């Protein structure tokens, strides 16, 4: 988070107006910036130069991202980060939900409560009861009985 400014907004506006007014009285812009900074007690001429540039961008005299656009971009980035976090939570919940559904059985897709052995579908109860028909038709072809 950015550090709050030690200069009030009214002082900034006044300083920018003064620079625009006295620019013609000095041989170059640096001298005008230094003079206004000294009169108003601003720490450095570079601080005042940044204020003037920001004002020029906001008024459309200079290309760049305005203060309002910067605030919108910052808000959008924050919203995007929030949505990404929400998506990650939803993805994790979906994976967890899928694991819970599939944990109880290792059944084939589309075969509820039944097993497929060599192309034959057997009911879950028939497998558990180990009926002779199931043993003969399931285990003999596999060579296990």
Number of helices: 6
Give the biggest beta sheet. Answer: 2 strands, antiparallel
Structural class call reads: mainly alpha
* Strand-residue proportion: 5-15%
Task: Give a written overview of the molecule.
The chain has helices at about 10-20, 30-40, 45-60, 65-105, 125-130, 130-140, and strands at about 115, 120-125. The chain is mainly α and about 140 residues long. The protein has a two-stranded antiparallel sheet. Strand 1 (about 115) and strand 2 (about 120-125) form a beta hairpin.
Structure summary:
The chain is mainly α.
Topology:
Blueprint: H1 9-22, H2 29-40, H3 45-59, H4 67-103, E1 114-117, E2 120-123, H5 124-129, H6 132-139
Antiparallel strand pairs: 1-2
Helix pairs in contact: 1-2, 1-3, 2-3
Which labels suit this protein?
2 strands; 63% helix; rod-shaped; 6 helices; 145 residues; mainly alpha; two-stranded antiparallel sheet
